[in-house]
Write a structure and sequence with these properties.
The complex is a heterodimer.
Chain A (H helix, E strand, L loop, with lengths): L8 H11 L3 E6 L4 E4 L1 H11 L17 H15 L6 E5 L5 E10 L5 E10 L1 H22 L4 E5 L5 E4 L3 H5 L3 H4 L13 H13 L4 E9 L5 E10 L9 E7 L1 H21 L5 E6 L4 E4 L1 H6 L20 H15 L4 E8 L5 E13 L2 E11 L1 H23 L3 E5 L5 E4 L3 H5 L3 H4 L10 H16 L4 E9 L5 E10 L9 E7 L1 H23 L3 E5 L5 E4 L2 H6 L3 H4 L10 H16 L4 E10 L5 E11 L7 E8 L1 H48 L8 H32 L6 E4 H11 L1 H7 L2 E5 L5 E4 L1 H17 L8 E9 L2 E8 L6 H4 L20 H11 L3 E7 L3 E9 L5
Parallel strand pairs in A: 27-29
Antiparallel strand pairs in A: 1-2, 1-5, 3-4, 4-5, 6-7, 6-10, 8-9, 9-10, 11-12, 11-15, 13-14, 14-15, 16-17, 16-20, 18-19, 19-20, 21-22, 21-25, 23-24, 24-25, 26-28, 29-30, 30-32, 31-32
Chain B lengths: L6 E4 L3 H13 L6 E4 L2 H13 L7 E4 L8 H11 L8 E6 L4 H7 L5 E6 L4 H12 L1
Parallel strand pairs in B: 1-2, 1-3, 3-4, 4-5
Classes of the chains: A alpha+beta, B alpha/beta.
């Protein structure tokens, strides 16, 4: 500290100690407190449960608390004579951490005289850094313990990060490889592989590519690794190629042995027509025979190659099944599957593949796949099926009756089946006019159709119609007429006729129920729509037209939710989504607003039934009803009920208050009466009591008068409306209370330019003006000339009369709820009975208006009287 | 009859004050009846006693319907002072209210001993004394 300063050293320290937010204490060489601040005292008490004060001395034997540290520091400091400022962290039992700053104080000679300790709460900082450390540790542990080595490289394969697990894979320390080029580790023969692989990775982001190659082990051996890499340059936090690899050398050795064995078998295998493929335990192709090479284009989508994973060769949709199959095989079982492949010439190739495990020393090291072309067999099977189908068709066809007519429609021949279909023997029909068998109303139409067939050789037509059965009833038949006049064998019209009564009656039933359904939908009161699960209209019933005015046809294809009111849309959409997601059978959509053709919102209520799974509907069927009128009525009723409740509460409150106000003076009278000395009438106190009797009686009488006034107002429902010119009206009122205004030396200003005349009840308005003006006078400020400003304003459907004063104001925070209550008084200043504001509020309410108040204590108050704006009566 | 050192009456109605005052004096209930005409005045008085470290009155008789600060407002303010008061006075509500809400409200303040309907009479003195013996 500088002695030239105006303040003494002690003053500065004292000021600092008082001002800082940290705990601070200064100790001398005897560990005695020579200065401390409040914060330190609190800190000390918190952790030692003892009071600290100036002069308190710490005992050197103290252990365990932070005091121990203070004492040690002091002892060390005075022993060595010097101490650098440094920080120390303490942990207390409340899991709080403090940095302690140590500051030596020197005297003029440079000797240490005292040591100051500052305590700074760093708990928060400490906890945060602890959290970070924890998550980092977890991540590290994960990476280190992986079998796979894990590394990040740039596009030149320079290693930017490498996990500790590289030790597991290749025995290198991570530091040895960091910033090295991975390429240099790769076996010269495999450099091509890694280049290709790298190229794949660099050209596609985010996809994993894997390959196998040899790299140099720490012990200088070449070992096989399986490596997978992924381009993550697009992720800013990574910005590198991520790769992981594992040592597969042991497996490779086993595979080599396998390969040798396969080679020996190769000669034999290459001469068979069956395809043989051997894959290793990682499904990579080890070897295959010539047949496999020839046939594989018919079951693999890519070129068959050693080293390639089988999974890369098969169609994506087969991968899952194939993996399952392999799992089975690696469990020691055999498996089979079939592939179908269509080549460019649209020729189908079907192969059956069998999978057998390949053992080496009782361990499964690979799979032996045999593929056989079974296309022909399959096709033969298919042929059988087709001919069977044909046969069946022929049999069914024979149920048709056949009739041949000449160009005059006379029957020349009939097949025996006519007996079955129409009940006639064939010979009964020959020579008859075939049109005679038709129903009267069909004759003309059918004749025309048949004539058309007669006119055009080889032409034909089909019709479902009714024909007279021998039993006198008409039966439903499907008839096909063909012109075969050009065919010398036939030389006529051929009719194939099949009885379809059963089909027809079923159809009829469907038709009937459909009609019934339609009837319901179309003539019901409800609107019925079918929606897709996205809410697109697929069908709307005609009732939509009558109810909403929308054309049902035009609704189709539109999204129903676009018509829902924006305020309701979210809820309706979420309910709809819920219904679909949770597959709810039925959902009720509460009253919501829906836009009709006239662009008005109507209140709609809907019950939706989920028929997405129904093959006939495949949609959501909504059953909606316009409840606007009902809702209006309900709302009206609700409002009415609310009003009634409010009125009832008001009345109840009124009765409580009035009974209190009647009871108070009566209680006073009884109280006085009890005190009256009846034994000794000359008791001087009796005189006083008599005076008070009079006062209490007057009190009672006044209360009764007030109540009568309120009751009259409350029961009076006749409020004649008349035209009132506000300026003139105000002046009259001002005159009537002129004395009062003069006494206060008040000014009344008016500005009715916004509205000069209003239509309302004059008596009430007078009471409102009188009360508000005299209130303003009563609660005027002593410090200024009272000014009352009265003006009008129009706001929407309201006329507002504003009474603004510059009086003492009202504390609205406290009194807003009570200001218009009965017998509420907020100032002691005047003789207010607490009736005026209650009365005018009741009057304004009767007029269908409302009253609001704004006020600032000491500045003034504005009462706003809202009345319904009637331009004329 | 037990004699109290001091009693505070919070009441704005002059006749009610006279009735109370007379009954208390005739029965020698206390020599020191202090009257405050609303809650605010009463609160000011209690605060001044606390500041000067003077003993508080042993009983407070509290009216509800008063201008400026009514009985309920007083109780709410008083409640915030409670932990500063070593020997809190016994508070009795003294009112001619007819509102059932007022009766139930009384029970919300556990430091309010009882509700006394007006007019105040001699029997009420015994009631107050009975709380004193507890």
């Amino acid at each position: 500290m500088n002695n030239n300063l105006q303040f003494s050293y002690e003053q500065v320290v004292a000021a600092f100690l008082a001002g800082t937010n940290d705990a601070y204490v200064v100790l001398n060489n005897q560990c005695r407190i020579i200065m401390l601040n409040k914060n330190y005292a609190a800190f000390h008490y918190q952790y030692t449960n003892a009071q600290a004060d100036e002069g308190t001395m710490y005992i050197p034997s103290i252990q365990g608390t932070f005091l121990h540290f203070l004492i040690e520091t002091i002892e060390e400091c005075f022993a060595t004579g010097k101490l650098k400022k440094f920080c120390h962290k303490i942990q207390t039992d409340t899991e709080k951490y403090y940095d302690i700053e140590v500051n030596p104080f020197f005297d003029n000679t440079g000797k240490i005289t005292a040591i100051g300790f500052g305590f700074f709460d760093v708990t928060k900082r400490y906890q945060i850094s602890n959290e970070i450390q924890k998550s980092e540790k977890l991540f590290k542990a994960l990476v280190t313990n992986l079998v796979d080595a894990f590394q990040l490289t740039n596009e030149e394969l320079k290693i930017l990060y490498i996990s500790d697990s590289v030790k597991n894979a290749l025995d290198y320390e991570p530091e040895e490889l960091l910033n090295q080029y991975f390429f240099n580790l790769v076996h010269p023969d495999d450099k091509i592989i890694i280049s290709k692989w790298l190229h794949q990775i660099l050209t596609t982001s985010n996809t994993f590519y894997s390959t196998e190659l040899r790299v140099k082990h720490k012990n200088n051996d070449w070992v096989f690794i399986e490596i997978a890499g992924r381009n993550l340059f697009h992720i800013p936090e990574v910005g590198a190629i991520v790769m992981n690899y594992r040592n597969i050398q042991n497996k490779k050795i086993a595979e080599k042995a396998l390969e040798l064995a396969e080679q020996r078998m190769g000669l034999l295998l290459n001469n068979t027509k069956e395809s043989f493929i051997v894959v290793n335990s990682r499904l990579r192709i080890v070897t295959y025979n010539r047949a496999a090479q020839e046939h594989s284009p018919y079951f693999f989508i890519d070129e068959l190659q050693s080293g390639v994973s089988l999974l890369n060769l098969i169609k994506e949709e087969e991968i899952e099944n194939t993996i399952n199959l392999f799992e089975k095989v690696f469990d020691g079982l055999e498996g089979e599957n079939e592939t179908t492949f269509t080549d460019e010439k649209n020729v189908v190739h079907i192969y059956r593949h069998s999978f057998r495990p390949l053992f080496s020393d009782e361990e499964i090291v690979g799979v032996f796949i045999t593929s056989t072309d079974i296309t022909e067999r399959k096709q033969a099977e298919l042929q059988v099926k087709i001919s069977e189908e044909r046969h069946k068709t022929i049999i069914r066809e024979s149920f048709d009756a056949m009739i041949i007519c000449n160009d005059k429609f006379i029957i020349t021949e009939a097949s025996p089946i006519v007996l079955k279909v129409l009940g006639y023997q064939p010979e009964e029909l020959v020579g008859r006019q075939c049109l005679d068998f038709l129903e009267e109303h069909n004759k003309e139409n059918h004749k025309t159709l048949i004539s058309q067939v007669v006119a055009a050789p080889d032409s034909e037509f089909s019709v479902d119609t009714t024909i007279l059965h021998k039993n006198g009833h008409y039966v439903w038949v499907a008839a096909k007429v063909k012109n075969l006049f050009h065919n010398p064998l036939i030389n006529g019209l051929i009719f194939m006729i099949r009885d379809i009564t059963n089909r027809k009656s079923a159809e009829n039933q469907v038709l009937l129920s459909e009609q019934r359904f339609k009837q319901l939908v179309q003539s019901g009161a409800d609107m019925i729509s079918i929606l897709t699960k996205e809410g697109i209209v697929q069908y709307s019933s005609p009732t939509v037209k009558t109810i909403l005015g929308n054309d049902p046809e035009k609704d189709i294809g539109k999204n129903i939710f676009n018509y829902v009111h924006p305020k309701d849309r979210e809820l309706i959409l979420s309910q709809f989504k819920d219904m679909i997601d949770k597959n709810l059978k039925q959902t009720y959509f509460g009253p919501f607003r829906f836009l009709n053709a006239a662009k008005q919102y109507r209140w709609i209520e809907t019950v939706a039934t989920n028929l997405l799974d129904d093959s006939a509907i495949h949609g959501i069927v909504t059953n909606s009803r316009d409840i606007t009128e009902r809702k209006k009525l309900n709302d009206k009723q609700k409002a009415l009920t609310g009003e009634l409740i409010k009125k009832n509460e008001d009345l109840q409150q009124f009765s409580f208050i009035t009974s209190h106000n009647l009871r108070a003076p009566v209680a006073n009278l009884i109280g006085l009466l009890n005190l009256f000395n009846k034994q000794d009438y000359s008791d001087p106190f009796n005189e006083t009591l008599l005076e008070k009797f009079e006062e209490a009686t007057n009190q009672l009488s006044n209360t009764l008068n007030d109540l009568i006034e309120v009751l009259v107002l409350k029961s009076n429902d006749e409020t004649p409306i008349e035209k009132i010119a506000l300026e003139e009206f105000t002046q009259k009122i001002v005159q009537s209370i002129e004395k009062q205004i003069k006494e206060c030396d008040a000014a009344i200003e008016t500005n009715f330019s916004a509205l000069e005349t209003i239509y309302t009840n004059k008596i009430y308005l007078k009471s409102i003006f009188q009360n508000l003006i005299s209130n303003a006078l009563k609660y005027r400020s002593k410090h200024r000339k009272p000014v009352i400003h009265i003006s009008t304003k129009i706001e929407e459907e309201w006329v507002i009369i504003l009474f603004t004063d510059n009086g003492i104001g009202i504390d609205l925070k406290k009194y807003r709820d009570r200001i218009f209550g009965l017998y509420q008084r907020f100032h002691n200043k005047s003789e207010g009975k607490g009736l005026g504001l209650y009365m005018i509020k009741a009057q304004i309410t009767t007029l269908g208006g409302k009253i609001e108040v704004e006020s600032e204590l000491g500045t003034g108050t504005t009462f706003k009287v809202y009345l319904k704006y009637n331009e004329k009566i | 009859m037990k004699k109290f050192n001091s009693i505070l009456l919070v009441e704005d109605d002059p006749i009610a004050i006279i009735v109370c005052d007379r009954i208390i004096k005739l029965n020698n209930f206390t020599d020191n009846l202090i009257t405050k005409e609303n809650g605010k005045e009463a609160l000011k008085y209690i605060q001044s006693l606390l500041e000067e470290n003077k003993p508080l009155p042993e009983v407070i008789l509290l009216d509800i319907n008063m201008p400026i600060m009514n009985g309920w407002d007083f109780l709410n303010e008083y409640e915030t002072l409670l932990d500063k008061i070593a020997n809190p006075p016994m508070i009795f509500i003294l009112s001619s209210t007819a509102d059932p809400n007022d009766f139930s409200k009384t029970t919300l303040y556990n430091f309010v001993k009882d509700f006394i309907p007006k007019p105040f009479n001699k029997e009420h003195l015994s009631l107050i004394e009975s709380y004193c013996e507890d």
